[in-house]
């Protein structure tokens, strides 16, 4: 089996290289397990003072989970292989939790595409993390485009963006830039790709006790190249906060429809392509998770995933986007007006007793 996760320790820094370029570093179960094993091994290793995760390709940091695998397991494979799908999400979410509370500085270089599962291994953590973006960064939580919801802790980190930006990103799946990401508290510093070799040289030589301090000092010289306050999201902030408040999807859509601005009309057109049901489910998820802990959010999302595959919306979304590539998903239901509260609430119904939940062990 190919090894898509490469590791090395240099200058007291544990380097993790995602090396599956043909798949834009989409996470497989084997990759999740390799990442977990590596981070656990380095957890108490005195020779590792920080972790730095990045990609071997400029095209993508990580484009998410391996959705073709999701489709194949969900539609074609024998029963014993369906357990691999259960394992994938349980172990991926446990990895997100491990990273979130990692005791050493955890630095992610989000160069290129960073979406879905890639966000989960970059956004996790608060006290320990440092998130680097470049001019190549293309960031999104695009799950509603395939009939899924913003998982991997999306219920947590999207709720820690300013105002209703997290709601907007979750319901539209829109791609944002480096400046947007910093403005939205989804990134910390900007370093141009032309300086990444110098960044790596710095990491191999710095004696700074906290590697993040050295990186921030290095990135300081590039602050004039990017202005989060003038980003696209910043300019849209008032409209986003106005339209994406509240707990009802149809109210959000009605508010947008009454606005003749370019932002509103473009957003209406974008949302018309997304799964009506999963947009409503996502809105409920974000509101439900607003005051929840990381572990609570991940447990809710693990339950939701089970319901998603049982319903089948995600399989249709992946079929349209990746398998047949007709980009014509037949959503069920087909319109927002047909989405009921009962349909939405069914995605949050308990699947396991609390003690038997796959993530019951997360503190």
TrEMBL record:
<dbReference type="Pfam" id="PF16113">
    <property type="entry name" value="ECH_2"/>
</dbReference>
<dbReference type="InterPro" id="IPR029045">
    <property type="entry name" value="ClpP/crotonase-like_dom_sf"/>
</dbReference>
<keyword id="KW-0378">Hydrolase</keyword>
<dbReference type="InterPro" id="IPR032259">
    <property type="entry name" value="HIBYL-CoA-H"/>
</dbReference>
<protein>
    <submittedName>
        <fullName>Enoyl-CoA hydratase/isomerase family protein</fullName>
    </submittedName>
</protein>
<feature type="domain" description="Enoyl-CoA hydratase/isomerase">
    <location>
        <begin position="13"/>
        <end position="348"/>
    </location>
</feature>
<dbReference type="InterPro" id="IPR045004">
    <property type="entry name" value="ECH_dom"/>
</dbReference>
<dbReference type="GO" id="GO:0006574">
    <property type="term" value="P:L-valine catabolic process"/>
</dbReference>
<dbReference type="GO" id="GO:0003860">
    <property type="term" value="F:3-hydroxyisobutyryl-CoA hydrolase activity"/>
</dbReference>
């Amino acid at each position: 089996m190919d090894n898509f996760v490469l590791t090395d320790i240099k200058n007291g820094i544990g380097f993790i290289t995602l090396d599956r370029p043909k798949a834009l570093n989409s996470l497989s179960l084997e990759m999740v397990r390799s990442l977990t094993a590596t981070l656990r091994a380095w957890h108490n290793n005195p020779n590792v003072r920080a972790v730095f995760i990045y990609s071997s390709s400029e095209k993508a940091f990580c484009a998410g989970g391996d959705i073709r695998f999701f489709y194949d397991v969900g539609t074609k494979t024998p029963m014993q292989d369906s357990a691999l799908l259960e394992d994938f999400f349980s172990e991926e979410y446990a990895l997100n939790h491990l990273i979130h509370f990692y005791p050493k500085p955890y630095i992610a270089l989000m160069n290129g595409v960073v979406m879905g599962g890639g966000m989960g291994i970059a956004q996790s953590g608060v006290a320990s993390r440092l998130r680097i973006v470049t001019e190549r960064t293309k960031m999104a939580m695009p799950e509603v485009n395939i009939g899924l919801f913003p998982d991997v802790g999306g219920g947590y980190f999207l709720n820690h963006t300013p105002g209703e930006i997290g709601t907007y990103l979750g319901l539209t799946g829109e791609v944002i830039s480096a400046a947007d990401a910093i403005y939205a508290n989804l990134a910390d510093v900007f370093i141009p790709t032309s300086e990444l070799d110098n960044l790596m040289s710095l990491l191999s030589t710095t004696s700074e006790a906290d590697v993040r301090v050295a990186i921030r000092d290095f990135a300081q010289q590039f602050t004039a190249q990017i202005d989060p306050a003038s980003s696209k999201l910043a300019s849209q902030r008032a409209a986003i906060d106005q339209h994406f408040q509240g707990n009802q999807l149809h109210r959000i859509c009605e508010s947008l429809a009454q606005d003749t601005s370019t932002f509103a009309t473009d957003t209406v057109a974008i949302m018309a392509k997304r799964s009506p049901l999963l947009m409503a489910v996502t809105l409920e998820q974000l509101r439900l998770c607003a005051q929840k802990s990381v572990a609570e959010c991940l447990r809710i999302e693990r339950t939701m995933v089970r319901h998603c595959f049982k319903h089948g919306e995600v399989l249709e979304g992946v079929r349209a986007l990746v398998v047949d590539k007709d980009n014509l998903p037949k959503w069920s239901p087909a319109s927002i007006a047909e989405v009921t509260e009962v349909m939405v609430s069914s995605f949050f119904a308990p699947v396991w007793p609390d003690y038997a939940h796959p993530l019951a062990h997360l503190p």
